What we know:
The chain is of the alpha+beta class. The chain has helices at residues 33-48, 88-98, 135-140, 243-254, 278-286, 290-305, 310-320, 345-358, 361-367, 426-443, and strands at 2-14, 17-29, 58-65, 70-75, 104-111, 114-119, 144-148, 183-189, 192-195, 204-205, 215-216, 223-225, 234-238, 258-261, 270-273, 388-395, 398-406, 412-420.
Amino acid sequence: MNSYKISIRILAPIGKSFWFFSILLIANFSFGQESGIVERYLGLDNLLNDQSFFGNHHTGFVLFDLDSQRVLFEKNSHLNFIPASTTKLLTFYGSLMVLKDSLPAFRYVENNGNIIFWGTGFPSWKYKNLPQSKISEFLRSYKTIGFSDSNWKDDAFGYGWQWDDYYFSYSSEKSPFPIFGNFVTYSNQKRTPISNIPYFGKVGINTLKETKYVERSFHSNEFYFNPNSYTASKSELPFITSPDLFTKLAEVQINKSVGLSKELLPQNHKVFRGGTLRPLWKEMLQESDNFLAEQLLLMISDAQFLELNSERAIDFIQKTYLWDLPDKPQWVDGSGLSRHNLTTPRSMITLMVKMEKALPRSEIMQLLPQGGINGTLKNNYKAKSPYIFAKTGTISNNLSLVGYIKTDSGQVYAFAFMNNNYLNKSSEIRREMEKVMVYIKEKF
Length: 444
């Protein structure tokens, strides 16, 4: 008989919350099934302990059995990490609880053939391959059309976003009623940039800066390129939003004049529906779409308060649906672009538990990226059949993965794997994380 000393973390209910506590188990096992179980955990510990690759930076990990509601293994589950784009799971859950599967495109009032409309944060109009509702056709039927942004109570950029991201499409501005995702795409046709939005068709020439892309001035919607070095096949650049610019872009789509109004949204207004949320959820989670995540937060605020305010939406979700997390997140944006976001691995696991109460596990797994199959996991975690279904989160020196793992024994576990403050290349972190996940797949 061999004696083993094992530290075990247990997720135990206290009141309506889940909290972790440690017990020290000293037990005698024979060289049978029990000793095999111990060796399985010791093997996982060897991959994650302070003497491993993950001992030289801030790492948190939880493996959780959803069926028995037991923590199988944990490391630093109580510490706060920058979650990066795994923040989108908080946004997803908030939209699931508040919006259900409803997608209001805009609110409006009509009078004698005239209409004034207000944005809800609806992000789909002319954006990517998302389903398109008949917005133009509906608005075109009115004699006069007015747009009001009086319900806009937010800023174009999120708290803590990096200023030098302003010309990358992953950092498009927020707005009450986006069009084209609030960015313009230039295609290289015979070394000449051609815009998908005619309004931005004029591109200046700057031969002083050697760049292969079209670029934008910091303070204006002035775009330029260097014909001597322009080789990129495609350039995607956010434009600076404004109510006036929105009306100009909308006029082209509607083929009718759109005026600006400051009228307040009355209680007796109507709602134009824009379809279902599922295509947005899928795009946001699988492709880690920051723009959609930010606009979903605004739509939550619209649904609750009839105003567009991300901070107010976050506060409402935390107080109403996430009040019982083990540790209150510091949550400041919808996408995870901000490094001010902080959460613990055990709170992310509790979030996974809560998500399963709102939506079947199979549906959540289909919405998340699948290892080796699609989205941000298309090139990682490859196997004969997908075994990782998880949201990725990556910004410089920070990489996280939260979701499900399906093992060879047929078990499905939730996990949160969070890494901060490393100096390695992200590819190295992914490679070592994959070793851990393959071990769990084969041994658990």
